[in-house]
């Protein structure tokens, strides 16, 4: 009698999730499901890419949300701690996986890991498919006529627009056929425990401000397109109006893709949303890509002045001034409002980010890298490319950056962009009884008014940390004395 052949179960395929914690418009997940093989969905918590601070908490929330979404579809997200370069091949061998899918990364550590991983997996005869979705345009796809990466945003953006519309968005898979395994994989693969991600001290409003799921991200997007896109160009610089999209945390964790945002904006009815508003907003999304292009070509964007003449700038090392800035106690209301908004919620309006960055680097003459680190620790949207590029932009040390001599006056900015002081009153409540005119300059309140409202300058609220005129003169002098300054002009 011939032995009957057992039907062999099809080899499973693996999808690795990394900052793309969503079911919709996820090419890696889509391709894995389309393979017709049973799917394993996994996330590797790797010490080399693990982030702490508010962003660590936010990414943990996003993973939990994806896990819930996969559970609803009858599966789960395997979350496993350890070095991805070791854990993934071990997982693949153990489960007999024949294909691995991921969406491409462009940061130096992620890129290097993926290159190694691909080589290792291919040597095990495992097919690897890496797909593009993180950006509207991959960093190397837009180049100057001479074949070089662009160094000026407007030229890059023109070229980007000539590339045509980004590809269509993919729907969430209707069903996912999950691979069943009963093994304790964490134990078998000697995985490391994943440390719990906690919000740092003081981030008391982050949880309430940032609901975390793919549906929440879509709701933020549709609410913005419906209610605020129509006046984006006029209002985007107004922290008191607070009508920007607030999509940055969702884009950061990949609860939303950039092209989902792009197409939602393009689909807005022209009757209500003018081309100017749509274009102004899409250009901001363009800055996101431009930042990633910079990080791709300048892997040390967060640590090295892209203009080397700034290596000679005599930065001040004044821990007490830095601490006052971090805690929102500089005596300049708009700066303090922004820093307190950041500390409490994990987010700060873009105009105010520019003002506080200019104040730290120019009025306090503190190295921009200190600010970059603090933002990275406290931002819910902390992003290695956008944070580093913007800090170098504000400090004047980057490419296509705001020149050093453009020093924002925090009082002028406050009067212009928060005229009635509504934003300041929200975040610096000790100033709330001051009249609109004085809320930008509380040190000018006269004794009678102070008595009347129970306000003691220097005590109820700090006296200004530095004299703006003097600090500005020192900043300009330090810059003028830089060797090879011409390159910075
Ligand atoms: C010093 C400094 C540090 C910053 N650090 C970060 C960061 O770590 N992560 C981050 O996502 N953004 C960062 N930004 C950029 C910007 O402040 C935020 O993207 C924006 O405030 C997010 O709010 P929003 O989603 O309502 O923006 P919207 O005005 O609605 O813009 C839509 C999207 O466009 C992108 N975008 C907007 N402005 C910029 C910009 N200047 N550079 C790059 N992309 C932009 C973001 O993805 C944003 O979500 C920083 C800006 C400065 C000045």
SSE blueprint:
Blueprint: E1 13-16, H1 27-34, E2 39-45, H2 53-72, E3 78-81, H3 84-95, E4 99-103, H4 108-123, E5 127-131, H5 153-162, H6 185-188, H7 206-209, H8 214-227, H9 232-235, H10 248-253, H11 258-266, H12 275-297, H13 319-327, H14 333-345, H15 350-363, H16 368-378, H17 384-395, H18 410-417, H19 422-427, H20 447-453, H21 468-480
Helix pairs in contact: 3-4, 5-12, 11-12, 12-17, 14-15, 15-17, 16-17
Ligand names: flavin-adenine dinucleotide
Number of separate domains: 3
Q: Strands across the major sheet, in which order?
A: 3-2-1-4-5
CATH topology of the largest domain: DNA Cyclobutane Dipyrimidine Photolyase, subunit A, domain 3
Shape: globular
**CATH architecture assignment of the largest domain:** Orthogonal Bundle
Task: Name the CATH class of the largest domain.
Answer: Mainly Alpha
First-to-last CA distance: 89 Å
Helix content: 40-55%
Quick check: average pLDDT?
Answer: 95
Radius of gyration: 25 Å
Low-confidence stretches: none
**Number of continuous helical runs:** 21
CATH superfamily of the largest domain: DNA Cyclobutane Dipyrimidine Photolyase, subunit A, domain 3
Structural class, judged by helices and strands?
A: mainly alpha
Query: Would you count the extended β strands for me?
Result: 5
List the secondary-structure elements in sequence, H or E: EHEHEHEHEHHHHHHHHHHHHHHHHH
Strand percent estimate: 5-15%
């Amino acid at each position: 009698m011939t032995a009957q052949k057992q039907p062999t179960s099809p080899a499973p395929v693996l999808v690795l999730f990394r900052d793309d914690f969503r079911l919709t418009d996820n090419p890696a997940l889509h391709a894995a499901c389309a393979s017709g093989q049973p799917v394993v969905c996994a996330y590797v918590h790797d010490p080399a890419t693990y982030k702490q601070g508010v962003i660590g908490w936010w990414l943990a929330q996003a993973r939990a949300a994806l896990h819930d979404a996969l559970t609803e579809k009858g599966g789960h997200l395997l979350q496993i701690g350890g070095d991805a370069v070791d854990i993934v091949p071990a997982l693949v061998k153990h489960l007999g996986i024949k294909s691995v899918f991921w969406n491409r990364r462009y940061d130096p550590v992620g890129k290097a890991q993926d290159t190694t991983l691909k080589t290792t997996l291919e040597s095990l005869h495992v097919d690897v498919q890496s797909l593009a979705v993180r950006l509207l345009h991959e960093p190397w796809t837009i180049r100057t006529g001479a074949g070089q990466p662009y160094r000026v945003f407007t030229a890059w953006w023109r070229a980007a627009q000539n590339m045509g519309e980004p590809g269509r968005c993919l729907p969430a898979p209707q069903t996912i056929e999950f691979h069943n395994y009963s093994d304790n994989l964490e134990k078998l693969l000697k995985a490391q425990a994943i440390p719990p991600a906690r919000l740092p001290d003081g981030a008391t409003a982050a949880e309430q401000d940032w609901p975390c799921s793919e549906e929440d991200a879509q709701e933020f997007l549709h609410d913005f397109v419906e209610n605020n896109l129509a006046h984006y160009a006029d209002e985007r610089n107004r922290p008191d109006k607070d009508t920007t999209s607030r999509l940055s945390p969702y884009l950061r964790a990949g609860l939303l893709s950039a092209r989902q945002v792009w197409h939602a904006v393009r689909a807005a009815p022209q009757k209500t949303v003018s081309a100017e508003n749509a274009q102004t907003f899409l250009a901001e999304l363009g800055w996101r890509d431009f930042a990633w292009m910079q990080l791709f070509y300048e892997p040390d964007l967060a640590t090295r002045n892209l203009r080397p003449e700034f290596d000679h700038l005599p930065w001040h090392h004044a821990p007490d001034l830095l601490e006052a800035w971090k805690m929102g106690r500089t005596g300049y209301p708009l700066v303090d409002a922004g820093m307190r908004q950041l500390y409490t919620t994990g987010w700060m309006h873009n105009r105010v980010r520019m003002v506080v960055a200019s104040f730290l680097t120019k009025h306090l003459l503190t190295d921009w890298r200190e600010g970059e680190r603090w933002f990275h620790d406290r931002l819910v949207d902390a992003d290695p490319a956008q944070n580093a590029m913007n800090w170098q932009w504000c400090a004047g040390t980057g490419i296509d950056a705001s020149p050093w001599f453009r020093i924002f006056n925090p009082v002028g900015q406050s009067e212009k962009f928060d005229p009635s002081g509504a934003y300041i009153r929200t975040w610096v409540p000790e100033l709330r009884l001051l009249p609109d005119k004085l809320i930008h300059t509380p040190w000018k309140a006269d004794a009678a008014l102070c008595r009347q409202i129970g306000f003691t300058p220097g005590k109820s609220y700090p006296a200004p940390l530095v004299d703006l005129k003097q600090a500005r003169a020192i900043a300009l002098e330090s810059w003028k004395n830089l060797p090879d300054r011409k390159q910075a002009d």
